[in-house]
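Hi C.,

You asked whether I'd gotten around to modeling the 336-residue construct. I have! Everything is below, sequence then structure, no commentary in between.
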Amino acid sequence: TLGEPEAEPAGEQPAAGPEKRHHARRGSFLVIGDWGYDVKNHYENLNWGECVKAIAQRMDEKFDQLGDVKFVINVGDSFYPSGVASKKDPQWQKKWRDVFSPKLRSVPWFSVYGNHDLHIDPCACTDDLSQCAQINADATNLDFFVMPNYTYYTPFPELDMEIIGMDMNYFMPGWDNKLKISELGFPDCQWTPCKDTCKSRFAQRMGASVDLFFDRVEHSKAKNLLVFSHYPTDYFTGGAPWLLDGFRNKTNHDIFYFGGHRHSTDTWSTCSIAPNVNWLVGGGGGYSCDSDDQGFVVGEIHANYSVETYAVLVDKEVCCLPPTTTSTSPTAVPLW
């Protein structure tokens, strides 16, 4: 995709030392998605829990090398297969805290809900955010993700940046670009206890998320907008081409969009938003290998506040078993 840096090859470290890179930067961040591995629920081509463990180790190494990571962006599907039921759910420990080091969790993990996160989370069936298992508005409480609402923005004036989290689960069927926006929905409502009200709730959340994005584009003074949801840009080609036009708008901001859901870490399988930048970051090792490209993305904010993004990938043999890929075809019904 135009304007997007090439991935850092698996096992390769940048040529410049961490001290030199650090002095030329305002800070850095990491991005990951679809990492919430469950021993009983994953596709046959994933190398069990070895993939997410290897990715977590590489993140740990990169965190040290950078020396100035400010936060992690997490695009969801953090707890396969069905999410967490509360903040006391033992999966917080088993699938997050025991996998990612205290060092990596010493900075905020700004998160959004993926489809799998919502099956048993009360948030699928209530508008009372206090009941939501992943919602946490206390940015100092790093025992959990930082997610003040299902859609939200957080400014970082020292980085000339805002992050914008969006709940776009209404676009889960968006892989089929023949569907109009009125024909979409949230198919995973079928796994919730509120099938009759679930679809309208996620339509409302999508609308609020889109409104927030365009509001921040209009009113934010930040040079950089980091925008993220659970879904890659190609899921919006049929139902919301106008949203992609918004992502491409470079009039007042440099926009960086991150989505997951499809299990690869790449720029080649998505819909371009050039002259701005977008990434698929669903190759977190949680469910399957939809390409050989499994890993995470790094963002570096340079002294002039420009942002460089690139992937750090693990060796495919560590993550993927034959058949290496499932399907990245936009016409195939996805497994996720």
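If it helps when you're writing up: Confidence is low (pLDDT under 50) at residues 1-19, 327-331.

Thanks,
B.
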